[in-house]
Amino acid sequence: MRITPLANNFGAEIEGIDLSDPSQEIKDAVYQAFLDHQVLVIRDQKLTPLQQVAFTEIFGELEWQENAIYAHPEHDKVLILSNELRPDGSAVGVVDAGDFWHSDSSHHEIPVKITILQSIRNPKTGGDTEFCDMYRIYDALPDDLKLKISGLHGVHHVSKALNPRVTISPSRPGAKDFYETQAKNRKEVLQPLVRTHEETGRQALYASPRFTLRIAELDDAEGQPILDQLFTYVTDRKRPFHYRHKYRDGDLVMWDNRCTLHRATGGYGLPDIRRMHRTTVIGERSFFRPAA
Ligand code: SIN
User: Fold this and answer.
1) Residue 121's CATH number
2) Which ligand 1 atom minimizes the distance to the CA of 115?
3) Which residues lie closer than 8 Å to 217 by C-beta, 6 or more apart?
4) Residues 157-173 pLDDT 10s
5) Which of 27, 102, 280, 282 is the most exposed place for a label (fewest CB within 10 A)?
């Protein structure tokens, strides 16, 4: 097993392992690399949906899939992300998944800790996933800003219809109605703006343009400029805390949602097809523990 750090010393590539039947030693080494590097690109895998579920279960309980109609026919905990259409014109998978910076399921009281994305079919152009390192963004904040957000909470909601920082993709059929229904039926969830990682003990900024609507303890006149300032670190054009992954056939990418954000960059279209199989592991309730 070879581990090579990626761009900006964020993330790592792993070669020389087969995840279809990993030994305990490999499982332990992968998890340690995951904690150390936050994003892992594991090359040359070809997992069936059942094998992907078995690999994901090593790390905890799988999350239920909200978009059940896009679940894989061989396993309902594997979500298909794709722009492919069936002969009747219906979508095979979620077409606009992750198009704005986010941490998966931060709109759930108990968010996802790990996401695993296996690349099944790659378009000739586009289809990259970008990641940013929320430990390093927290570390880079000015001290007065760190102090100001310490102990505050972001209000997270799943509906794009409630969030002026995002737009609803026109390529997803019925998306406007879907998000308007979510706006009525789903709850707001509070998450600490600074999250202490349960296992490493490090502090990470835990807020995203996609899911964080406002700061719970501040009115918008004060809170929105703070969120805008925090998000400039995520969207910084120079990408100093970032890694952009260009998929090769056989790539399996896994990331730690407690200390990273990610986004799908798009840039492809039919007849070019992108297809990913996605599984997620439920984490722990988030918390903030001030540094001693
Ligand atoms: C996601 O946000 O979970 C998917 C990202 C991607 O498809 O690149």
Assistant:
1) 3.60.130.10
2) 3
3) 152, 153, 223
4) 999 999 999 998 777 77
5) 27
